[in-house]
């Protein structure tokens, strides 16, 4: 998903433009201690295109907390695909205007120049801003020329975005410094991401297409996800949020764990997030070459006991630095993709459903009979099944778990999260 940063000096109308583009008055806020302005970012849909917009604090040379705010502005520009630079027609051209524009050019970003407050009569400084190039005059308050702005945004993104059609999106997720970028480099066999021992080197999500065994994957290298208590710096918070967005966009997540350190509470949180979003999961036990005291089989069993919500996950031991078992990992990813993509014939599903019921029939706490009439598959990636029943609201959770686990066993959904929806029959409820 393309990211667009909205930047400018204080009080030029950036937040008003931001709210107008996302069609909301409030979005996710980063409560960064010691700043006069929070960073805000949110999804927006412009002419059918999903875009992540990033609002920023006002860029100034002087002022309390300005170093922190300016760092945020720079990072927002660095991590964006395009930038909207906002000027104020009612104020003279400033050093800050000049510095922001020069930074955008230095980073070789595509940009749109916007002059706000065109509804105010006093515009004696208008021509000063044309030194930067063509400027779109708007009024954020009255939405003047916003249709033109939206068209410019879409045209800019269309030019900038690579039209890569891949079979599946793969997100590499995990805590900071567990070896995600090293794994990316091992997969691509090139030093594309900057790799360092310093915690949190990667601060953005970078998409790279690659092919394996005839299948095209779009690989997303994400920054480390950190606990909230440890994300005090603006860059850490933004990096964590981008990682969560990468999970949303993915079909399969490779959860990287430091095998030497073992499973941490943060690892569990990340894997649980992936499971809740019904993504395919492959757990990569990185730095396995440093583990000496336990066999892989025993380690895997222990791991699955600690991850009951993701017991279906595939597990592979690797060493990203040594490039060991990388093909084995890729084979696991490919297999999970194929499993998550498969469709099961309705008659086969219902044969298995009948055997599930025969072994353990559902019963309502109210003493009424529950009939699971038939099942069908309505989607893939993840596989989504609908079971038609006479009393969907009376089926107990432990029975739903029984049905879910039975389907995993019967159809071998290794690494693949499945969704099951219980729907009431359109016919009159059985007595």
What does this entry look like structurally?
The structure is a single chain. The protein has 431 residues and is of the alpha/beta class. Helix content is 33%, strand content 23%. The strands form 3 sheets. It has a 7-stranded mixed β-sheet with strand order 2-3-4-1-5-6-7, with helices on both faces. The radius of gyration is 26 Å and the shape is globular. 38% of the residues are buried.
Order of helices and strands: EHEEEHEHEEHEHEEHEHEHEHHEEHE
| Terminal-residue CA separation | 50 Å
Report low-confidence residues grouped into runs of 5 or more: 25-38, 190-205, 223-232
Question: Roughly what percent helix?
Answer: 25-40%
Number of helices: 11
Number of strands: 16
Q: What composes the largest sheet?
A: 7 strands, mixed
- Taken as a percent bin, the fraction of beta residues is 15-25%
Mean pLDDT, all residues: 82
Tell me the Rg in angstroms.
26 Å
Identify the strand order in the major beta sheet: 2-3-4-1-5-6-7
Q: What is the structural class?
A: alpha/beta
Shape: globular
